[in-house]
Design a protein that fits this description.
With 295 residues, the protein is α+β, with helices and mostly antiparallel strands. The chain has 3 domains: 1-85 and 183-204, D-Maltodextrin-Binding Protein, domain 2 (3-Layer(aba) Sandwich); 90-171, 3-Layer(aba) Sandwich (D-Maltodextrin-Binding Protein, domain 2), CATH 3.40.190.10; 205-295, 2-Layer Sandwich (Double Stranded RNA Binding Domain), CATH 3.30.160.40. The chain has helices at residues 2-14, 28-31, 37-40, 48-55, 114-123, 136-144, 155-160, 194-200, 206-221, 268-281, 284-294, and strands at residues 62-65, 77-82, 90-93, 108-111, 128-131, 150-154, 169-171, 185-190, 230-237, 240-248, 255-263. The strands form 3 sheets. A 5-stranded mixed β-sheet has the order 5-4-6-3-7, with helices on both faces. A 3-stranded antiparallel β-sheet has the order 1-8-2, sandwiched between helices. Helix 9 (206-221) packs parallel to helix 10.
Length: 295
């Protein structure tokens, strides 16, 4: 809802006199809180119902967290804008411990993400990593009740909800590589709506869009879904973009990382494909095949 209101405010500032109504919808991803996303169908759960509303003309645009948007949009839909990115890092949140390294052996750490779980287990094998679902407030409540010694959340979500004081430590990408598109907001509409595409164009941040396209290409090249513990993070530094990515097994025992650089003016998909090829050369296909077999 914060993201929808943010896009509404941006549109009203750009187009005085425009009428923008918020049409709140509860999606399947919001309803099923008893199981991990990987088990109930992946990230598309947050997007499909919004796309149906666009098709039925019950809504003009849909606002998404880019990390929830499946790698391939259905035919007839387009991402008209990717807004400027908030902090893409993961946050370590704890009442007792100052950092990941301060956690004692056997400490209970909550996360809903296979990507975070894989990295935690690879780096801190002595921790108990346990599932944690629900909205941000629900997750924080479970921490406050003592169900976990620490939880891992997205920095962007906490900042947007005015909860940044709950962040104990921001995890550097070296500690926890973000998900493709993490911290970025995407606006989707029907490809046939040239009027909307034009209206939304000024919302697009070219640096964010380029980096997010590159990150999503890594996942696409490896046929990524919620079931795959995968991180990809592209950072623009002047005219160059540095991309890092990893694929791991959920238990952290197998872990392949790769990186590459490219010119910002070039093709984001080429950089994403190059990094994906490095992961494949390192054994990513074998990790993914084992995952597919388990599911």
């Amino acid at each position: 809802m914060w993201q929808a209101h943010y896009i509404r405010q941006r549109l009203l500032a750009l187009h005085p006199g425009l009428v923008v109504e918020i049409n709140a919808m509860l999606t399947q991803g919001d309803r099923i809180l008893s199981a991990s996303l990987a088990k109930v169908g992946g990230k598309g759960l947050f997007v499909k119902e919004l796309e149906r509303a666009l098709e039925a003309e019950r809504a003009d645009i849909a606002v998404h967290s880019m990390k929830d948007v499946p790698m391939d949009l259905p035919h007839g839909f387009v991402l008209a804008a990717v807004a400027e990115r908030e902090d893409p890092r993961d946050a370590f949140v704890s009442l007792q411990y100052a950092s990941l390294s301060a956690l004692p052996a056997g400490a209970r750490v909550g996360t809903s993400s296979l990507r975070r779980e894989s990295q935690l287990r690879a780096r801190c094998a002595s921790l108990q990593v346990l599932p944690l679902r629900g909205n941000v407030q629900t997750r924080l409540r479970k921490l406050d009740e003592g169900q976990y010694a620490a939880i891992i959340l997205a920095v962007a979500g906490l900042k947007r909800l005015g909860l940044q004081e709950r962040i104990t430590a921001e995890l550097a990408p070296e500690q926890s590589l973000p998900a493709p598109g993490q911290g970025a907001i995407g606006v989707e509409c029907l490809a046939s709506r040239a009027d909307l595409i034009e209206l939304l164009r000024p919302l697009n941040d070219t640096s964010t869009q380029w980096c997010v396209l590159a990150e999503r290409q890594v996942s696409r090249s490896l046929s990524g879904s919620c079931v795959v513990p995968l991180g990809a993070f592209a950072e623009r530094q002047g005219h160059r973009v540095r991309m890092r990515a990893f694929v791991g097994s959920p238990d952290g025992t197998r872990y392949v990382a790769g990186s590459a650089e490219a010119d910002f003016g070039g093709s984001p998909e080429e950089l994403g494909t190059l990094v994906a090829q490095k992961l494949i050369a390192g054994g990513a296909r074998e990790i993914l095949a084992a995952l597919a077999h388990d599911h």
